[in-house]
Each structure stands twice: as C-alpha cells, then as structure tokens.
Amino acid sequence: MPPAAPTPPPPGAASPPLGRLLENTADAVQAVRGGQSLTDVLACCPPDLRPGVQALSFHTLRWLGSATEARALLAPKLPPPAVDALLVTALALLWPTGAGQDPPPYAEHTLVDQAVSAARVRTPAAAAFINAVLRRFLRERDALVAGAQRSALGAYNHPLWWVERVKRDWPQHWQALLAGANRRPPMTLRVNARRGTGEAYVHGLAALGRAATLAEDPPGTTLGAGQTVVLAQPCPVYQLPGFAEGEVSVQDAAAQRAAALLLQPIDGEDRATQPWLRPKARVLDACAAPGGKTAHLLELAELELLALDSDPLRLARVQDNLNRLKLQAELKAGDGRFPKGWWDGRPFDAILLDAPCTASGIVRRHPDVRWLRRQDDIQALARIQAELLDALWPLLAPGGRLLYATCSIFPAEGRLQIDAFLQRLPPGTAVLEPASPGHLLPLPDNAPGAIAMRPAALQDGFFYALLRKTPGS
C-alpha cells in the first residue's frame, strides 16, 4: 500500500537539512533490511521530513545491491548496523546511474559532508571512518564500480534468488526486466469518467503550464477509453487540479485495465461502449484495498458492489477513496477464502480477484519489495491465490465473469496459476476469454519480442485472466 498522500507544507517552510534526511533515510534502510516495509517506516517519519526521506529511500533501495558490494570492497569487516546503513545510503546516493535512470541527487562533496554530519549525530565514533570510506570511493570509483558489478547483487540490484527466478521465467527478457525495476516510474492518472475526459484534463494542465500526455489505450478498449493521463513530472497529489474534488485519481495504466476488462462487452456482444452487465448488477471486489479498482468499476457502471478485504484498517482506505470520488459501495471485512463469514448466498454477476502476490511487477514503485521478499513467499502466496479462486468461483452466477489479477511477473502467480485452476474445474464449466491479456511485462518498446509479449514501457508488470462461467454450470 502506498504511503498516505502528502499534505501541503506550511507557507514559507524551509527544506529540511540534508544531514537530517540522511539520518532518517539510513534508519529506513536499516528497518527494511530488518523486514519492515518502507510504507510503515515512512508513516512514522516526521511529516516535514517524509517527502525527502521517501525520495532518498527510493533511490537508495534501487541501488542497494551495488552499494552493499562496494561497501564490502571498501570495508571488508562489516560495520555495526547503524553505521553500515548510513554508509550504504551514502554510497547508493553517490552511485553513477545509467541512461534513463535518476542521476545522483546531490553534488558529491555536499553528500559526503552531510553524511559525516549525520554520522556525528547518530554514530559519532564512526564519523571519521565514514568520511574516509566515502572519500576513497570518490577517488577509486571506476575500479570499485567495476568490482561491485562482478556479482549478480551488485550488477542487478536484486537478491540472487530473484535474479535467477526472473532469468528462468523470462530467458529473453530477464536483463531488461531487472534494469527496468531500477527506473523511476511515471506518475499516471485516471480521470473520473463521470466528471470529464482525459483530453480535457490534459488541456487543463497545459493551461497551468504543466506538461502531460494522454496515454494510448490498449487495443480493443471500448469502455472507459481516453481516461489515462501521464504527467511529464510527478508531483504531490495536493498539486493535482481536482484531486480533492474527485475528478482524478493516481493509478498505473496497467492497473486501470482491470475495470474495462471485467465490464466491457467481448467481441460479438452488443453495446460495445456500455457495460455488458445490467444496471445494479452484483459485483464483488474480493481484495479491494486500497480501493483504486473498486472506484474505477463504479466510475464506469451502476453496480451493486461489495468491496471485501481481510484487513479492516486497509478497508478504511477504500472508504476514503470512495468518499473523495463521491461513490458508494458496501464494504465488509472478510477473507475471500472463507465465504461463510461474509456471503449472503446471492450469486455475483462478476468478480474481481486482485489477489495477494509478491508485487514483483511493481518493484519500480516499491523498491523495498525485492529486499523484503523471500524465495518461499512465491509458493506461499500461490497457495493463497489458489484457495481464493477455489472459494470464489462457486459464488459466480452462470454466465458471469471472474477477472483474476496479480501485479506480478512470476508465472507461478499468473499463467501457471490459472492453468492449474482450469485443470481443477469440471470440463466445460469455464472459458478463458481470448481477450485476456495474460502477462504484461514492463519492457522498453525496443526489447526483443516486445510486441509479442504485449509489454508497455509506461506500465507496471501485471497478469490478467478473464474467466467466464458457462451457462448451466
């Protein structure tokens, strides 16, 4: 779940000193290494420091593998955790980045000076050590960078098991996928179809001197087309015109595909620009938090929608989103695997199952994920996904549709999961619609096989499978 939206700074507020930002960024890196999500860490960060700490933490976590290997070359004896966290933070922020990636955010000597100042506050005895290590890095940078990149960790900035898994799953694309995870993603918006069009919103931004483009819709999109806007430069949500009034939401283009896939008619059906469902049809969003896809469904159709989530606290985020957008749904806390605890017995016309997953497709937006995940998480999450599919399919009315989605690039959570599910069902009771996108890989347009793999360089990695329950089954 992304951090809470930033609040506007007080008028005339000064930027926090870099030394304080480095102190708190090192704390965040140490917490992530200890298994805590960056979202939780940032929630506890002082509000005036949070935007800066988030930006520095994102950069550091994208280059943490390289920085860790360089630190090992510079100081083979592992320093105490707090010292090591500050050291790798500074090294990551000094690391030379490639084309299409964020440059180091501060001048070299400014960063070294402020890292030493931060050390004097947090680890005074290590200030001279940190100063010496960082200055040596600047003197010997080319050799140290080359040495660090001899290992998979230093070269790809992902754990070794992750690198091997991506290499096995996507032998043609693994290097591009790993490199793409270290690029800063675009800020993509979804214009509320009840309030306006993407084209009008782009023109409104241009009038304010803000550059943005209308994203190209996926082939075959008929419902909710022309609503995706990509900003030239990210900004806090409070700077988005109409955000507080519900005119626009922040949502990646790949995530925006869910609502149209579930609701729009399939080739050969009538009313191509209208939902295939009757008005007030019963729809279940089975893992709804934080509510972006819930809201999008309601923006596109008049539905009797149940938003379900197992976490009551995260369910509150769904309600916040609906309130801002002036939309209504029934919200329930419950686990989709155990319908007896929340289902009223009436079948659903459509189900969206945006299942819990490794989030391996959105690592560029959540760079801590790669360091938090463990290899056995894939199997554990795949088991939960299978249990959700098995439990929710009987709740779907004959002729209804279930859209299975994960923000993962691992086939075990996508294609292989759906193949196994269809094998478990009685023959002839389910159809995998040809409109199903399958795996969407965040590859550059010129990557080998890019067109065949249906990638989108501006989109996150996702998997979608649209299943239809045959009438009479």
Features:
N-utilizing Substance Protein B Homolog, Chain A; 4-stranded antiparallel sheet; 40% helix; 8-stranded mixed sheet; Rossmann fold; globular; Alpha-Beta Plaits
Please give a structural write-up.
This protein has 473 residues and is of the alpha/beta class. It has three domains: 18-154, N-utilizing Substance Protein B Homolog, Chain A (Orthogonal Bundle), CATH 1.10.940.10; 158-185 and 253-473, Rossmann fold (3-Layer(aba) Sandwich), CATH 3.40.50.150; 187-251, Alpha-Beta Plaits (2-Layer Sandwich). 40% of the residues lie in helices and 13% in strands. It has 18 helices and twelve strands. The strands form two sheets. Strands 5, 6, 7, 8, 9, 10, 11 and 12 form an eight-stranded mixed β-sheet that branches. Strands 2-3-1-4 form a four-stranded antiparallel β-sheet, covered by helices on one side. Helix 1 (18-33) crosses helix 6 (108-122), helix 5 packs antiparallel against helix 6 (108-122) and helix 6 runs antiparallel to helix 7 (127-139). The longest helix has 16 residues, at 18-33. Mean pLDDT is 92; it is low at 448-456.
